[in-house]
């Protein structure tokens, strides 16, 4: 009888350890790496700009040399709209985002924008960042 109880405790301890291990993994902070530069391809060509340049423009309206190169080809009104878009906050829950991304239009949108915005190794920028 003692042997049976010892086995039961061992299984119970193993199960508790397994559950605690899974929970600690799910709720631990996972470091994320953000992009330093954004590359956008279009029929007119490809351009790359640093995230810090875009942040500075969004916060202060100051166009640095890097962003200035591209800004010269865009009307001032368009740059104003671009700044507003950079400053816009969109309140979405993770569930809302997930539901959209797993829909057919969401997957198609990811493919389209991923072809425009690519990683440094010229891979689809969204399809390699978001697991589907």
Q: Span between N and C termini?
A: 50 Å
Quantity of strands, as a count:
2
Number of domains: 2
Quickly count the helices. 6
Question: How many strands, what sense, and barrel or not for the largest sheet?
Answer: 2 strands, antiparallel
Order of helices and strands: HEEHHHHH
The helix content, as a percent range, equals 55-70%
- Rg calc: 24 Å
For the biggest β-sheet, the strand order reads 1-2
Mean pLDDT: 75
Q: What would you call the structural class?
A: mainly alpha
Beta percentage is 5-15%
Task: Describe what this molecule looks like in 3D.
With 132 residues, the chain is mainly α. The chain has 2 domains: 35-89, no CATH class; 90-132, no CATH class. Helix content is 58%, strand content 9%. The protein has 6 helices and 2 strands. The chain has a two-stranded antiparallel sheet. β1 and β2 (45-50) form a beta hairpin. α2 packs across α4. The longest helix has 26 residues, at 2-27. The radius of gyration is 24 Å and the shape is extended. It starts with a helix and ends in a 16-residue tail after the last helix.
């Amino acid at each position: 009888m003692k042997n049976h109880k010892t086995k039961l405790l061992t299984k119970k301890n193993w199960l508790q350890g397994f559950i605690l291990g899974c929970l600690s993994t799910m709720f631990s902070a996972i470091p994320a790496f953000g992009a330093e530069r954004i590359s956008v391809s279009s029929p007119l060509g490809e351009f790359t700009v640093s995230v810090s340049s875009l942040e500075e423009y969004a916060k202060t309206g100051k166009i640095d040399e890097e962003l200035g190169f591209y800004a010269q080809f865009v009307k001032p009104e368009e740059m104003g709209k671009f700044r507003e878009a950079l400053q816009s906050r969109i309140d979405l829950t993770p569930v809302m985002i997930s539901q959209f991304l797993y829909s057919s239009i969401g997957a198609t949108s990811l493919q389209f924008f991923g072809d425009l915005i690519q990683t440094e190794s010229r891979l689809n920028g969204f399809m390699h960042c978001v697991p589907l």
